Amino acid sequence: MTESSDLAALLGQEDLLHQQLRVLLLVTAVAKEPGNAGKLDGLTKLAKLDFIARYPNLAGNVARELGIDSPDVGGSPPTATPMIRYRYGPWDDQYYPVIGALVGRGLVRYAAGRKGSVGLAPTAAGIEIAARMRKEPSWAQVASHYDQVARAFGGLTGNKLKQAIYSALPELHDMPYRTELR
Known about the structure:
The protein is mainly α. It has one domain. Helices cover 59% and strands 12% of the residues. It has helices at 3-31, 43-54, 56-66, 95-104, 124-135, 137-153, 158-168, 170-174, and strands at residues 40-41, 83-86, 89-91, 108-112, 118-122, 180-181. It starts with a helix and ends with a strand.
């Protein structure tokens, strides 16, 4: 391997770890909200909540569409990595390896979701790691932001979130599939 390819592989691993930690924070934030039965219900819901969290400048539009208070996004972290426009709205191709890694590490477990969907429930180890992350200066702001997103939007279904995103942001619906969302 060349030095350049070694660096690319290392950066890819760091990015995947960063995505795992973000998703763990989101799953734990949603799971602790009342009415979610200790889990995040379905990959559609994960993707839509992640979109709202990663694009805080658009969260207000979606909240207005739903008639709910928008989370305070002042000083929110910038978009981590761009999502893509997919058949069912914003998506990230890293979800499958990220979720697999979280399950494999014993931080999240699969749980029965609504209408046969796959739910994601944090394990005791996942809850402990997320709690430690919340105390780390480099993650505290991200964790707080995800808590706000979970409080504002976490009680909604993935389908309801998808419909609200498309209604509030019609330009997303008209984009070709696999277009990066910037």
